[in-house]
Amino acid sequence: MTDSLEKLKSVVESYLATHLGKDVDQETLAQSMEYSTLAGGKRLRPTLTLATVELLGGELSDDVIRASCALELLHTYSLIHDDLPAMDNDDLRRGEPTNHRKFGAGMATLAGDGLLTLAFQWVTGNGLPADVKADLALELAKAAGPAGMVAGQARDIEGEGQKLSLDALRYLHRQKTGALLHYALLAGGIITKQPAEVKDLLTQFGDAYGLAFQIYDDLMDVLSTAEEMGKKVGKDAGEEKNTYPGLLGVEGAKAELHQALDAAKTSQSQLAEITGQSFDAFDDFLAYFKL
Amino acid sequence: MTDSLEKLKSVVESYLATHLGKDVDQETLAQSMEYSTLAGGKRLRPTLTLATVELLGGELSDDVIRASCALELLHTYSLIHDDLPAMDNDDLRRGEPTNHRKFGAGMATLAGDGLLTLAFQWVTGNGLPADVKADLALELAKAAGPAGMVAGQARDIEGEGQKLSLDALRYLHRQKTGALLHYALLAGGIITKQPAEVKDLLTQFGDAYGLAFQIYDDLMDVLSTAEEMGKKVGKDAGEEKNTYPGLLGVEGAKAELHQALDAAKTSQSQLAEITGQSFDAFDDFLAYFKL
Lengths: 291, 291
Hints:
291 residues, two-stranded antiparallel sheet, mainly alpha, 72% helix, homodimer, globular
């Protein structure tokens, strides 16, 4: 019996609201970090970790929740820095002024730096076994760092104005968006001390999910209205960013999305088979993609 | 018998030059990260860790060197972000264009993010025992994060144009500069698995050293020529930054420096007494302060 996604999401919300401020020792910095972290959002990444822990029989202790919520801190940092004038120069995020529009670019840079660093404090500052903590920190750093997410962002900046091949676009997104989702699933396997073959299947699910997620995001940018998204839409095309619909057309991108979802479902079935557990709860994550 | 500081510094230089690029998977990002990291500097922080490990009988294995050099990655990130247009807006660092003047503010932001994240990869991605790795990552995050260095930077931004009290200035610098030097010493104690009383004395030395370091830096800003510093001097006063000479006058700041150095020497003697080892090698670090 697993908790619903809504329940897990509220566990994350509550942990962040209660604990984030305690680890910050400067008032404006705390406000700035909380402003972006407590601004809502799907809480997809820590929820994926918590759901995975539950599916594999782990207990959602305070230690596990702290270690899992670290990923939301890290995700929030990436959004704050991405929005900066020196990067995407976005004014709105989830319908509200971006962090630098509210606190200035200097404090927003520091808020991002603080959240990134605090993420490592939360994966290691808890009562989990030392090998689990060291492993989580290493895998988080690999996923988020200069051969993972940060490399993807660098590739994104460099790719602007250039037409990428489909392979290059896939590679970019595997780093930029996929790496953290890969980690979200892997973390669940590390926390519950799974054998390598289970961790491999978890990350295969995460990789396919991450690809689907990016394609869907690109498609929504083309198909949604500004009101639904809470940010400027059609922006990617205007700035000559590389997107799946841009390269493949809307129908082609939808086909690519379905392929990624099929791959995720295959990993899901294999996980059920190898662990003898039901992984039906992953259906709730796949239900996110509505076309 | 311990290695000279020059020898330890060259160990750090060589490790950084050989290994940094391997962990970066995007060309411009790698160039940007290497540009600032391999630009010289005293390598004070990792050298302090390595000297401490040696003094306490530890071996300078590749694993120990990797874990120690992480702190130089983290220090370099803090310089890159500090120099950004949104922060101090500096054009020169060690006599060369700052990272954003060379690569643009977007890539410089990412280079800093990459170095910060890679620091955690290096403290946990090595063959040291899991409890040592988890402990290093936690203490590094606490020192560098939003209750440590990043809080000090936020305090610095907020304090501009306001006159701070001496206590407030000390607190700011304990976070901004002191925390990483505190960690540099503590890391040596963690790696060699020292008892709490030795680790306490190590961090007391680090705290006094960090205070001396900041006062000395402030004094040099007033007393040196631009040529010697490789950056603009007299800049702090022009921007109404709070400094020790600004608050206490040059002679008062010198007295404060001597007090900090005396405290460091006391911790050094106590370390020798409690461990039964000579800590004379710390004299080389204290010889840095020439007035």
